[in-house]
Amino acid sequence: MDVEDIRKLREETGAGILDCKKALDGSGGDYQKAFDELVKKGMSKIAKREGRETPEGTIGTYIHSNGKVGAMVELNCETDFVAKNDIFQQLVKDVCMHITALNPLALTSEELPEEAINEHKAAVLKEMEGKPKEILDKIVDGKMASFYKENCLLAQSFIKDGDKTIQDLLNDASAKTGEKVKIGKFARFEVGK
Q1: Were both Cys, which of 9, 68, 76, 144 would link to 20 (CB 3.0–4.6 Å)?
Q2: What is the model's pLDDT at position 116?
Q3: What angle do CA 93, 74, 14 make, to 5 degrees?
Q4: C-alpha 41, offset from chain centre
Q5: Are the C-beta atoms of residues 54 and 78 closer than 8 Å to each other?
Q6: % of the chain surpassing 90 pLDDT
Q7: φ, ψ of residue 66 in degrees (nearest 5)
């Protein structure tokens, strides 16, 4: 077993050294399988944390280099110790940059303005005029699902890694820090808008 793999696994997952060693032993030395197993275990711990309060955290900002657009986010956790660690601080920066780039309308689909939903649905129905009724509902449902994914922060694909959503980033941070991590609120600012 490679000590470097244990160290790297510990850094990436936040799991203890013994847990990393056991995961590598159990996977026959396959790093990716060990990583997936530790993340899976971490994710089950996240479900246990769901009801916990998140009274600590930090407010982060990002201003694009042109000085014309930026974002502010409140990222919450359970303790000030986690709020100050590098994983948490990097997550705050990444989420701010993501918000600046993709301009989400809301955190979740439940928080989307009713007006925006109705407006998009009306545009989809107008675009689909003349389509047979039996396929129209499926098309509308698919286009609305895409609309939610594009406009709800937690469902958006992360700009630095399209395979992960913002919710995945929060889950990863929770697994690595051992605490519940969530976005409290966010705002995006753009000159002239």
Answers
A1: 9
A2: 92
A3: 60
A4: 18
A5: yes
A6: 54
A7: -80, -5
Residue 161 backbone phi and psi in degrees, to 5: -155, 95
DSSP letter for 178, please.
Answer: S
Average pLDDT, integer, range 176-183: 88
Residue 56's DSSP bridge partners are 77
164 shares a domain with 89: yes
Q: How far apart are CA 168 and CA 151, in angstroms?
A: 16
For 2-61, the DSSP string reads: -HHHHHHHHHHH---HHHHHHHHHHTTT-HHHHHHHHHHHHHHHHHHHTT----EEEEEE
Q: CA-CA distance, 137 to 23, in Å (whole number)?
A: 46
Check whether residue 100 and residue 159 sit in a common domain: yes
Q: Is the pLDDT of residue 61 over 70?
A: yes
What is the dihedral sign for C-alpha 122, 124, 127, 130?
A: negative
User: Which among 116, 110, 117, 96 is positioned nearest to 183, based on CA atoms?
Assistant: 96
86 with 164, same domain: the answer is yes
3-state SS class at 191: coil
Report the CATH number that the domain containing residue 80 is assigned in CATH: 3.30.479.20
The beta strand positions in 37-150, using DSSP E, are 56-63, 69-77
Coil, strand or helix: which one is 190? strand
Q: Are residues 160 and 95 in the same domain?
A: yes
pLDDT at 114: 93
Domain CATH for 35 = 1.10.8.10
Name the residue range of residue 121's domain.
Answer: 113-151
